[in-house]
Design brief:
By secondary structure, the protein is an alpha/beta fold. Helices cover 48% and strands 9% of the residues. It contains 18 helices and seven strands. It has helices spanning 2-8, 13-26, 83-86, 127-137, 154-182, 187-198, 205-214, 217-220, 227-237, 250-266, 287-298, 304-310, 314-321, 348-369, 373-385, 392-399, 407-421, 430-440, and strands at 35-36, 42-47, 50-51, 59-66, 69-80, 98-105, 120-122. Strands 1, 2, 3, 4, 5, 6 and 7 form a seven-stranded mixed sheet that branches. The radius of gyration is 29 Å and the shape is elongated.
């Protein structure tokens, strides 16, 4: 325990230790079943209780047998027993219901407000547990358990990957629900912003979402019969018609002139050009072509959400985004000199990413709110049918021995890396929990 405190440092170390002790108590990772209080009374934990994340004792409704007598009540955990008085629990009646005080260091007796002595237990855990925990959370490599993942039973891994996939999907669905409230229940507006965001393909996601919010469908709808005016609004609002850009060629100049008129008419303000990132992006992935593609989706009226819901299978969903750019953008990656040959508006792999990040979450969210299990199931089947994403995270975990057969699994691996590995939430990860459980019981990992 002293080693762990040394690795954590002085600030916040006690708080961190208490959280770790709560974890040990909650998951029954103590060293021996034969525990005793500081007065020598035998303790047997029937039920550690329910972890409390709000004010009050740490665990509610625990069942503990002390010296042969059953107690039902709350459990409080501190690193130092003296923290009981330091936190003023001795004068707080909310803590009179505490039946056991669990500590890392017994340096003071504790009493209820009426003066009654509370049984106190020093939590015994294998010293190796604290060392292994510190190694996991303070490791210098990206995935600190990389060399140990293969120890985890296959069933545990399968269950955890499935949970991670739904955790990531539900996070996206929650964001959609929040947007739905913002747009007063308009699914097409939510679809428009979600699609625009994901056309940024990671590096320009934030910029595309800002563009969509600054150029709402109600504005674009006034000009849905003119692809030229839609492009003028989108490129103008993106800040891409500012400065000397309009002198790149006649088409850019025409767009700039049209945007100047529309900007004045609707009192619009463009984004800063610095919001867009072009460094190390291949020309076919430049945001100019993605914006031109967004304009194509808006032309004639944006009804993409309706089309997504009506699509019967992956083939029909894929066809929604397998479009070709015409006119100026058929031969340009940006404003200026044309290219003899340009790539498709979206490659098949890019369409996969749109289906993963746009279509599946929208379908699932819509199915939830309309109580349509057919739609939620369709969203899951879509992710199961799509190939896994090809990125560094998937490559990393497959090299550690975790198979990734489909997009549902690749989404789980992205969730694992970003929400657990990078945040060092090893205690909350099933992989970390399995390894720490072994360590707590004296097994080497």
């Amino acid at each position: 325990m002293l080693l762990l405190l040394h690795r954590f440092g002085t600030m916040n170390c006690v708080f961190g230790m208490e959280k770790l002790m709560q974890y040990v108590w909650n998951h029954r990772l103590w060293r021996s079943e034969d525990m005793v209080t500081n007065t020598g009374k035998k303790v047997r934990v029937i039920d550690p209780g329910l972890l409390n994340t709000d004010a009050g004792p740490d665990f509610f409704n625990a069942k503990v047998e002390i010296d042969g007598r059953m107690w039902v009540g709350n459990v409080e955990i501190h690193y130092r027993a003296s923290d009981w008085k330091r936190h003023h629990h001795d004068v707080d009646k909310a803590y009179d219901s505490v039946i056991l005080h669990v500590v890392g260091k017994d340096d003071a007796p504790v009493r209820r407000t009426g003066g009654e002595l509370i049984p106190q237990l020093v939590l015994e855990v294998s010293p190796q547990f604290y060392t292994d925990y510190a190694t996991l959370v303070n490791g210098t490599i990206e995935v600190s358990c990389a060399e140990k993942i293969k120890q985890v039973p296959q069933l545990t891994m399968v269950e955890w990957v499935s949970a991670l996939a739904f955790e990531r999907l539900h996070g996206k669905v929650q964001r959609i629900h929040e947007m739905l409230e913002r747009f007063n229940g308009s699914w097409e507006d939510v679809c428009y912003v979600t699609l625009a965001r994901n056309l940024g393909f990671g590096i320009n996601n934030e910029a595309f979402e800002r563009l969509a919010r600054k150029t709402p469908l109600r504005l674009l709808g006034k000009h849905s019969d003119s692809i030229f005016q839609i492009e003028a609004l989108l490129f103008g609002q993106a800040g891409m018609l500012e400065g000397n850009v309009q002198h790149a060629d006649p088409y850019a100049q025409q767009l700039a002139t049209e945007y100047a008129f529309l900007r004045n008419k609707f009192q619009l303000s463009p984004m800063e050009t610095q919001a867009w990132k072009l460094f190390r992006i291949r020309p076919q992935n430049f945001p100019y072509r993605r914006i031109a593609m967004l304009a194509r989706f808006v032309e004639g009226g944006f009804r993409m959400m309706r089309r997504i819901v009506d699509a019967e299978d992956e083939k029909q969903m894929r066809a929604l985004f397998d479009v070709q750019l015409s006119g100026y953008w058929a031969t340009h990656y940006t404003f200026g000199k044309p290219h003899e040959r340009t790539a498709a508006a979206l490659s098949q792999r890019s369409i996969d990413i749109v289906l993963i990040n746009t279509v599946a979450p929208l379908l699932y969210a819509y199915g939830e709110l309309t109580d349509s299990y057919a739609l939620t199931d369709k969203a899951i089947r879509l992710l199961e049918d799509l190939k896994p994403e090809s990125n560094s995270i998937v490559a990393q975990f497959t090299s550690y021995g975790i198979p990734c057969p489909d997009a549902l699994t690749s989404q789980a691996l992205v969730q694992l890396k970003r929400e657990y590995c990078e945040a060092r939430k090893c205690m909350y990860c099933k992989i970390g929990h399995y390894l720490l459980s072994k360590s707590a019981h004296g097994e080497s990992i």
